Amino acid sequence: MVGLLVTLVVVGTVQWRANAREAQAADAYPPSGQIIAVDGTQVHLTMSGSGPDLVLIHGASGSLRDYTFDLVDRLKDRYRVIALDRPGLGWSDRPHPGYGGVWNTSAEPPALQARVLQAAADAVGVERPIVLGHSFGGAVALAWALERPEETAGLVLLGAASNPWPGDLGALYQINSSRLGSALVIPLITAFAPHSRIEDTVASIFTPQQMPAGYLEHIGPEMSLRRTTLRANAQQVNNLRPYIVDMAKRYPDLKLPVEILHGTEDTIVPLRVHSEPLAQLLPNATLTRLEGVGHMPHHAEPETIVAAIDRVAARAGLR
Q1: What are phi and psi of 15, to 5 degrees?
Q2: pLDDT tens string 63-72
Q3: Which of 122, 145, 161, 193 could link 152 by a cystine bridge, Cβ 3.0 to 4.6 Å?
Q4: How far is residue 277 from each of residues 21, 60, 108, 176, measured CA to CA in Å?
């Protein structure tokens, strides 16, 4: 009896702490753009500027705030920039089972994510966009082009997860994507992860560069610690590889202009595993190796990224 009471107290404490932290994060970081409803799924996006359409798709554990920190302001003078929260992250919902005829949505394959984001982009009048994707978002950007090859002007891929990799991902992804880990481990992370650990984790993504001043406060990493977001991210990342295997077979069919930019010091999505073979598969791709740059090239060398976007626009006849 005593053991049962202790268990109930512990579970209740975790639940209360997790609820409080999630509510605090939501209050501090409300939607910064508009919510678009597509077939019962809400998608959060921001639009800035005017000109040819440019779609920005963020990576794992993130949100569109990664782009609104700096990059959007560098582009909105000559593009209409549409930044989107991927399904299950930021303020975007995960698609319901059966969305687009796909019933197993527990891991949201890149193609399904692309369809959800395309529906939201259609709703705000996006036409023949350049699509930029970073990290996991690069896989979704490639899926976007594979879904709509004639309606996509070009791609810009930043440290993109694009090709099959050897070995397994970290144990935490596997644990958190399991039923047991989802039920037991994720609530503990949400409830008790210290801010110092959060800051160290985000800073490590920028290695060997330094995290920009004010970045952490802008992106609101606590939003990524919500239980639903942790589950979505873990399941999507842990199940990505087989979808990449299938997608890679179709890359040679993409004839649109592609700019690939990848840091030589990226240890999260290694250049030799992903972008180097990708450049060989895409017939109209240009690979730029960013010497000494890690996994966040759009923060380390933003002007280089802007120049690559401009090159795609020119190659696609948009400028």
Answers
A1: -60, -45
A2: 999 999 999 9
A3: 145
A4: 42, 22, 25, 30
User: What is the Cα–Cα distance from 248 to 74, expressed in whole angstroms?
Assistant: 32
E strands within 107-147? Answer: 130-134
Tokens 């087989």 locate to 242
- Burial code (b: 16+ CB inside 10 Å, e: under 16) for 95-121 equals beeebeeeeebebbbbbbbbbbbbbbb
Pairing of strands 130-134, 34-38: unpaired
Token output for 20: 């409080």
Q: Which two tokens stand for residue 107?
A: 């891991």
Which pLDDT tens digit goes with each residue over 77-136? 999 999 999 999 999 999 987 776 665 556 899 999 999 999 999 999 999 999 999 999
- Which uninterrupted H or E stretch holds 260? strand 258-263
Return d(Cα 262, Cα 228) in angstroms, integer. 30
Structure tokens at 56: 């920005």
* AA letter at 37: A
